[in-house]
Design a protein that fits this description.
This protein is of the alpha/beta class. The protein has helices spanning 17-22, 49-62, 71-91, 104-116, 137-140, 163-168, 192-201, 221-224, 248-253, 277-297, 304-331, 367-376, 389-394, 414-429, and strands at residues 30-31, 34-35, 37-38, 98-101, 124-128, 148-152, 154-155, 160-161, 174-180, 205-209, 228-232, 242-246, 336-339, 353-358, 379-380, 382-384, 403-407. The model is unreliable at 1-10 (pLDDT under 50). The chain binds pyridoxal-5'-phosphate. Pyridoxal-5'-phosphate is lined by residues 42, 103-105, 132, 134, 180, 184, 209, 211-212, 232, 242.
Length: 430
């Protein structure tokens, strides 16, 4: 019997941070004599040594194209099958429902073009104001074919989706609902399962962007029942690659634009040209990193999926503590405003990704100015809209530099958070 930990059954030990950090060589760097603090996870996370090793070992030993009648080509085929099965465990689906691509944006444009072949005037697609543009523009492109794009609005005060508004915009004409699992700008986690249910009730497909959620929580496409879900392995401790889950029936039914000699079998009919083999070798290593983390904290885990679930239970609890510390600390800095959920009782609905701005900022306190001063002191943050363009426009911060984004992941420490708070205080007061 498979042992599947749940919040109720799992009693994880606390995250072994020394063990975690020892696996990420880049964390040991310094900037201007300050230890580097990686708060840029939402833009891309660091990788453990085993990912670096898997990439270089592939290039050293197995570097070949697929389906050839010789050893290294055979090894490459096996490596690709292993990576597909690792991602199937990561997302909880079958291996032939996993499609690899260069990144989430490219995969989504490919899928929107294929889905759009069967759509036209009178059809509607629903997108949200909260999403990264990679889950907006590929659908907006279908306006050319006569498709109408509708927008689900947000509650500005806490940057959550207005579910009533979203539900009111789904109707019999809706062919697809595109929604983010979590916002890469303000950290909001959306009620994706409920949104998938609403889409299906109207006969629409549900397309989920899980790029930002990937490093923070376990993804279960079977439980969500979504039709498509996309993520990027470079956001969860792996190489720069994108991965798409599509229900097998859709991958078989939809018509990809493809070259003729390419097989019509799924999932390969969706993978055009030669893939980035070395990075795909790194994907298995990053999933194994997470699974090993889970096994360390939950040795009873009976298989890799159970270990991944356990890893995210441990990660979620640890990140929650860090997030509470950071939000409490920033709330005490009167010059700073946090955008997004700040009510502790709703923290289950946010990731540890914070968007902040100086209230009534002057030109020395723009998000870029803050990020630059922090960067000089070794804190890696981001500034601007990070492609969540509709959100920064809606909140009227786009023209004045967007937000400063502070993103925590499980290799960050409480000590880093405390040092950041002290430094932020000094910077905004100067
Ligand atoms: C929420 C979200 N969706 C989509 C993307 C685009 O991902 P990719 O770079 O893999 O195309 C990003 C990248 O930052 C993101 O944060």
């Amino acid at each position: 019997m498979t042992i599947m930990p749940t919040t109720e059954t799992l009693a994880p030990t606390a995250l072994d941070l020394t063990h975690v950090r020892s696996q990420f060589p880049s964390l040991a760097q310094a900037v201007n004599g300050h230890p580097a603090v990686f708060l840029d996870g939402p833009g891309g996370t660091q990788v453990p040594q085993r990912v670096i090793d898997a990439i270089s070992n592939y290039l050293r030993r197995d570097n070949a194209n697929t389906c050839g009648a010789y050893a290294t080509s055979g090894h490459t085929d096996t490596m690709l099958a292993d990576a597909r099965s690792a991602m199937a465990d990561f997302l909880h689906c079958a291996a032939d429902e996993i499609v690899f691509g260069p990144n989430m944006t490219t995969l989504t444009f490919a899928m929107s073009r294929a889905i759009g072949r069967d759509l036209g005037s009178g059809d509607e697609i629903l997108v949200t104001r909260l999403d990264h543009d990679a889950n907006v523009s590929p659908w907006l492109a279908l306006e050319e074919t006569g498709v109408t794009i509708r927008w689900a609005e947000i509650h500005e005060e806490d940057c959550t989706l207005d579910l009533a508004d979203l539900a009111s915009k789904i109707n019999q004409k809706t062919k697809l609902v595109a929604v983010g699992y979590a916002s890469n700008a303000v950290g909001t986690i959306n009620p994706v399962k409920e949104i998938v249910r609403l889409a299906h009730a109207a006969g629409a497909l549900a397309y989920v962007d899980a790029v930002h959620y990937g490093p923070h929580g376990v993804i279960d496409v079977a439980a969500l029942d979504c039709d498509f879900l996309v993520c990027s392995t470079y956001k969860f401790f792996g190489p720069h690659m994108g991965v798409l889950f599509g229900k097998r029936e859709h991958l078989q039914r939809l018509r990809p634009y493809k070259v003729r000699p390419l097989t019509d079998a799924v999932p390969n009919r969706w993978e055009w040209g030669t893939l980035n083999h070395e990075c795909i070798a790194g994907i298995t290593a990053c999933v194994e990193y997470l699974a090993d983390l889970g096994r360390r904290h939950y040795p009873q885990a009976a298989n890799r999926r159970a270990a991944i679930v356990a890893a995210f239970e441990t990660i979620r609890r640890y990140e929650r503590g860090l997030m509470e510390r950071l939000i409490a600390g920033i709330s005490e800095i009167p010059q700073l405003k946090i955008y997004g959920i700040t009510d502790r009782s709703c923290f289950d609905w946010r990731c540890p990704t914070l968007a902040v701005r100086v209230v009534n900022q002057n030109k020395n306190q723009t998000p870029l100015a803050l990020a630059t001063k922090l960067g000089d002191r070794g804190f890696f943050t981001w500034d601007g809209n990070y492609y969540a363009l509709n959100l920064t426009e809606q909140l009227d911060v786009e023209k004045s530099g967007g937000f400063l984004r502070i993103g925590l992941v499980h290799y960050n420490t409480a000590e880093e958070v405390d040092r950041l708070l002290v430094t932020l205080c000094q910077i905004v007061a100067s």
